[in-house]
Amino acid sequence: QAQLVESGGGLVQVGGSLRLSCAAATQTFVDHTLAWFRQAPGRDREFAAGLNRGRIEIYYNDSVKGRFTISTDDAKHTLYLQMNDLKPEDTAVYYCASRRLDYVSQRAIDYTDWGTGTQVTVSS
């Protein structure tokens, strides 16, 4: 239970920033590839950013590249997503996810562990 727990969502204006956190249990953080996905109502869950198990490869969806930054605090077993220059189309529930295989997948079905999400709303 509660292997991954997201926090940090909220309501922001266009152009604003938020920092999301994902507190992870050891068994879902150490030696695991980590990723952020997002899902708006009526849409498929969409890959936003990912970091491989070895922490040397980072991938971003083109829609967030240059605005979002994925990172970890390994001592705290925490995954972060710094989101800058937020746009209305960034409005979604954001989820962190984990899997053992050592490369980033952009497919939600490839991940084995999920948080329950945190809402991000960007208003104009």
Secondary-structure topology with pairs:
Blueprint: E1 4-7, E2 10-13, E3 18-24, H1 26-29, E4 33-39, E5 46-51, E6 58-60, E7 68-73, E8 78-83, E9 92-99, E10 113-114, E11 118-123
Parallel strand pairs: 2-11
Antiparallel strand pairs: 1-3, 3-8, 4-5, 4-9, 5-6, 7-8, 9-10, 9-11
Description:
With 124 residues, the chain is mainly β. The chain contains 1 helix and 11 strands; from the N terminus they run βββαββββββββ. It has one helix at 26-29, and strands spanning 4-7, 10-13, 18-24, 33-39, 46-51, 58-60, 68-73, 78-83, 92-99, 113-114, 118-123. Strands 2, 4, 5, 6, 9, 10 and 11 form a 7-stranded mixed sheet that branches. The chain has a 4-stranded antiparallel sheet with strand order 1-3-8-7. Strand 4 (33-39) and strand 5 form a beta hairpin. It is globular, with a radius of gyration of 13 Å.
